[in-house]
Each structure stands twice: as C-alpha cells, then as structure tokens.
C-alpha cells in the first residue's frame, strides 16, 4: 500500500483535509487514486486522461466561496470514499451505485454561488425562475455535472453500456438533489423504517445511498476538532455574507445566518443534535463499523460545543455582575 492509499483510506475522522491553492494538485491526485482503488476505472473502461480531464473540469467549475468550493466537494467525496472502504460497500453495492455516489459527492455543489436556496427564491433570481423555485441550486449543480459529462474529453461515462447510461445519470441526479436539506427528514425516515438492511432490495439501497451522501455532505464535525473548527468558521463566514446581503437588499434574513444573532457554539451544537446525530445513529444501526469513526466523534463535538457555550455563558454572567 503506497502513501496515497494510506492517506485516502484512513478512518473518516482522521483523514487529512488539505486546503488552499497549493493543495489542488494533491486533491486531484487523491481523487484520481480513489477512482482506481474502487475499481471504477477498470469496470467502466475509463481512459486515464478522461478521468484527469473530468476531475480538472470539476475543480474549475467550483467557485471560490468561503465554504462551498472545490475543497468542500473534495472533502465530501473523500469522506464517502472512506466510508465505502471502511464498510467494504464496493463489494455489496453494484459498481454503478459506487460510481454514481462518487460522482454525485464530488459534483454536488458545482458552481455554487455562495447564496442559499432561500436567497435564490426570495430574491427571485434567474436561477430560481429557471427551476420553478424548486431546489434551484441542486438542479443547477446537476445541470453543470451533466454539461461536464457531455463533453467528449471529460465524459467518464463514454464507455458505459447504452442501456445502463440513463440509469447511472438518473442515479447521479437523484443523489445530488437529495443534498437539498428540505429532504433531510424524509431521507432519515426512509432509513429509520428499515429494520434489516438488504443489499438486494433496491429501495433499501436507495435509502442507504441518499443517507450516505447527505451525511458525508454535512459531516465535517466528525473530523478532528482543529479541522472541524476551520470548516465551521468558513461556513459561518459564507452565511454571514449572505445575511448582510439580505439586509442590504431588503430581503427576509435567514435566521441561522444572521451575524447579529448567531453564535457558533450554539449553532453547531444544535446542528449536531437535531440533524447530524439522528442521521448518523440511523446509519450506524445498519453499518456499526462507523460508530467509532463517525458517531463517537460527533458526540465528542457536541460535548465540546456545549462546554464552550457554558464557558461563554459564565463569562457573560461575570460581566453583568
């Protein structure tokens, strides 16, 4: 096993997360290696240069936002790769399932403008109108993905059997659309209603795949605290920029983005408690291998933020005395 394999297949909570322009080459190299390690290149007869062109094109189509940037797309794909490898899911899922998940994870925020669906709808942007105010960002991310896959030089699916191609494209689209948080509750319930996961049951597999991409999308708090803090700060920065713009334009201010009201420790504690933990706990019922690498770090992160909240409250009380 070479150093790239060791780096990209560590337990999810311990995976290094490079950031910055100087690391883009490293991220592209790691992504390429993941596709080889999952046997996707051989199975789908991908030309090495086509894979490299696809990955480079994906990187070029991410905007330089504080949070929703290429590094985020890389990190979601990285986390998914770690989960697949740790649970050996590539041996239990169809190869097309693994391919669709990896492409969707990497591309799920392509050309993200740094402004949420709520902003798009309230501002009645061209993007919102184009998709009839229905998940405009996610529909756009898929449209850009399809555009990249439609170019000969970056078409990963060029050698896929014609009868299989529409199915894989549909899978990628549905997984990208599943990352819209409006679907969170429905996807969680779908997995919770499964008593015993069967990989021969396509409804079960669909629920699992949507849960996996959703969890990987929002899983930064399962990473080591120093990495999680950087991600949380980047997200807060992007949120606050949006709320500033909403105020300047006279639009409704998204409550959890308001820099005058939101406190990071409180916001992250609530996010972990009400969204992340229930999703991770439901997943670990079927994939208990993830308890140590995902569930326990999330519980530790929740405790860390609660302690931070208690400390801030104590400081505020002393100032009021």
Please tell me about this protein's structure.
It is an enzyme of class 3 (hydrolase). GO terms for molecular function: 3',5'-cyclic-GMP phosphodiesterase activity; metal ion binding. The protein is mostly helical. Helices cover 65% and strands 0% of the residues. It has one domain: Catalytic domain of cyclic nucleotide phosphodiesterase 4b2b. The radius of gyration is 20 Å and the shape is globular.
Major sheet characteristics:
none
Distance between the termini: 60 Å
Shape: globular
What structural class do helix, strand and pairing data support?
A: mainly alpha
CATH homologous superfamily identity: 3'5'-cyclic nucleotide phosphodiesterase, catalytic domain
CATH topology: the name is Catalytic domain of cyclic nucleotide phosphodiesterase 4b2b
The total tally of domains equals 1
The helix-strand sequence is HHHHHHHHHHHHHHH
Number of E-state strands: 0
CA-based gyration radius: 20 Å
Tell me what the CATH architecture is.
Orthogonal Bundle
**CATH top level assignment:** Mainly Alpha
Q: Helicity level, as a percent range?
A: 55-70%
Strand-residue proportion: under 5%
Note the total helix count. 15
Could you list the spans in which at least 5 consecutive residues all have pLDDT below 50? 1-9, 11-18
Question: What average pLDDT do the residues reach?
Answer: 94
């Amino acid at each position: 096993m070479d150093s790239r394999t060791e780096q990209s297949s560590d337990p999810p909570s311990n995976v290094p997360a490079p950031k910055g322009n100087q690391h883009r080459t490293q991220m592209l190299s790691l992504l390429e290696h993941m596709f080889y390690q999952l046997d996707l290149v051989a199975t789908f007869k991908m030309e090495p240069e086509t894979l490299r062109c696809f990955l480079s094109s994906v990187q070029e189509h991410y905007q330089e936002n504080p949070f929703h940037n290429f590094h985020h797309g890389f990190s979601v794909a990285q986390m998914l790769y770690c989960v697949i490898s740790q649970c050996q899911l590539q041996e239990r899922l169809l190869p097309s399932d693994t391919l669709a998940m990896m492409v969707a994870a990497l591309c799920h925020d392509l050309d993200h403008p740094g402004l949420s669906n709520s902003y798009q709808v309230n501002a009645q942007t061209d993007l919102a109108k184009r998709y009839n105010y229905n998940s405009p960002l996610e529909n756009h991310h898929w449209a850009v993905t399809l555009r990249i896959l439609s170019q000969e030089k970056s078409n990963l699916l060029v050698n896929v059997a014609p009868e299989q191609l529409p199915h894989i494209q549909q899978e990628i689209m549905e997984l990208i659309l599943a990352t819209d948080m409006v679907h969170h509750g429905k996807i969680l319930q779908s997995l919770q209603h499964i008593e015993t996961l069967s990989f021969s049951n396509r409804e079960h597999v669909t629920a699992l795949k949507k849960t996996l991409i959703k969890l990987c999308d929002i899983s930064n708090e399962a990473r080591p605290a120093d990495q999680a803090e950087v991600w949380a700060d980047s997200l807060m920065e992007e949120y606050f920029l949006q709320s500033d713009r909403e105020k300047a334009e006279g639009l409704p201010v998204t409550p959890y983005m308001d820099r005058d009201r939101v406190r990071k420790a409180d916001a992250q504690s609530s996010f972990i408690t009400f969204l992340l933990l229930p999703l991770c706990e439901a997943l670990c019922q079927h994939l208990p291998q993830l308890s140590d690498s995902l569930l326990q770090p999330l519980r530790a992160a929740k405790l860390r933020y609660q302690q931070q909240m208690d400390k801030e409250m104590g400081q505020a009380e002393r100032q009021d005395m």
